[in-house]
């Protein structure tokens, strides 16, 4: 196979591989952006040993975060059925090194998914004693990657973003949102990026890319996989747009609520978790109830999904959750933004990125 440098474009440490060259991404209304490690693949690259192990691991040996390929395939089928899309608008932004690209792409083939493109971090050059710290510094790299992607998308695109709690993904996606919406002055943004450990060259590139994109917030929803068991209440500092989830079934439930997945596809995802990963119907119902307790799912979605669970035999006709579901208050084009009651804002006016508390 051709060397990765001949199959990609590089800007600082951002390496981009394009797979679907015929996809007209500048006219797509919604795209899906996925992190790789601990969000799609159950891997670890935050240590030297973990990185080297991941680099040399065979494609067939790579393990998925349970249910993630099923979610992507379900989203793809749903959009093809309802929007007649030839290419599912999927992109990956990974902090993995580009030397892994051929094996990861082979893994995608085994999982029967076809991303349009993928970003990698040229990180093996940091495998020297004085630079090992940069293995864990992902904010500048990922924000730059997202901005490079944004320059190629339509003016009013919506981005559904997926990350985890191990690599500051909530900070990255929300900061990207702030940059697109111009919520900080140039001086404020520069100081913030410096405080977050972003290099001067990367700060300059981020500011340059900001001038190339419209003043519009494209981030529609952010899902954070709780891979390291962070308390979900911590993420309330980012607003209700950022949803921490314990498993992929909770992601699927919320996607059903926002009319991005059907009950039929929810059943496909549930079946995969039960058959491949030994989930029980009781566990799936428990995660459903946990989202009701956290006031994520509204009354209409609760009733629809409850009836589905009754039909599948997961629960009885008399079953009721311990917390009463609330009615939807703000719904736009099928997406639920607010339930009746007093809650944190959907997007806060200010997020304190530098303090590690709610």
TrEMBL record:
Domain Phosphatidate phosphatase APP1 catalytic: from-to ranges: 33-175
Superkingdom per UniProt: Bacteria
One Pfam short name: APP1_cat
InterPro entries: APP1_cat (IPR019236), Mg2+_PAP (IPR052935)
Alphabetized GO MF terms: phosphatidate phosphatase activity
PANTHER family given in the database record: PHOSPHATIDATE PHOSPHATASE APP1
Protein name, UniProt field: Phosphatidate phosphatase APP1 catalytic domain-containing protein
Organism encoding this protein: Pseudobdellovibrio exovorus JSS
High-level lineage: Bacteria, Pseudomonadati, Bdellovibrionota, Bdellovibrionia, Bdellovibrionales
């Amino acid at each position: 196979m051709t060397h990765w440098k001949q199959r990609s474009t590089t800007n600082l440490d951002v390496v981009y591989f394009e797979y679907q060259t015929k996809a007209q991404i500048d006219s797509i209304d919604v795209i899906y952006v996925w992190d790789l490690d601990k969000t799609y693949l159950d891997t670890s690259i935050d240590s030297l040993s973990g990185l080297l192990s991941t680099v040399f691991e065979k494609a067939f040996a790579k393990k998925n975060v349970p249910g993630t390929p099923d979610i992507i395939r379900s989203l793809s089928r749903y959009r093809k059925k309802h929007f007649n899309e030839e290419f599912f608008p999927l992109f990956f932004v990974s902090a993995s090194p580009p030397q892994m690209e051929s094996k990861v792409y082979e893994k995608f083939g085994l999982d029967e998914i076809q991303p349009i493109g993928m970003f990698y971090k040229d990180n093996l050059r940091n495998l020297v004693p004085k630079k090992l710290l940069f293995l864990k510094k992902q904010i500048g790299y990922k924000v730059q990657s997202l901005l490079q992607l944004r320059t190629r998308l339509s003016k009013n695109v919506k981005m559904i973003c997926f990350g985890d709690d191990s690599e500051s993904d909530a900070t990255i996606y929300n900061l990207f949102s702030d940059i697109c919406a111009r919520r900080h002055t140039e001086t404020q943004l520069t100081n913030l990026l410096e405080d977050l450990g972003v290099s001067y060259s990367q700060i300059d590139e981020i500011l340059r890319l900001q001038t190339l994109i419209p003043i519009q917030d494209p981030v529609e929803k952010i899902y954070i996989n709780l891979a390291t068991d962070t308390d979900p209440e911590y993420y309330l500092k980012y607003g209700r747009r950022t949803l921490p989830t314990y498993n992929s079934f909770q992601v699927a439930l919320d996607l059903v609520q926002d009319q991005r997945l059907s009950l039929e596809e929810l059943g496909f995802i549930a079946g995969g978790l039960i058959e491949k990963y030994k989930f029980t119907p009781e566990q799936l119902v428990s995660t459903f109830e946990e989202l009701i307790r956290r006031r994520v799912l509204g009354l209409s979605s609760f009733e629809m999904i409850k009836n589905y669970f009754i039909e599948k035999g997961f629960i009885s006709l008399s079953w009721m959750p311990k917390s009463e579901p609330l009615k939807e208050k703000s719904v736009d084009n099928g997406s639920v933004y607010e339930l009746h009651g007093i809650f944190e804002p959907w997007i806060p006016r200010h997020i304190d990125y530098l303090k590690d508390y709610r």
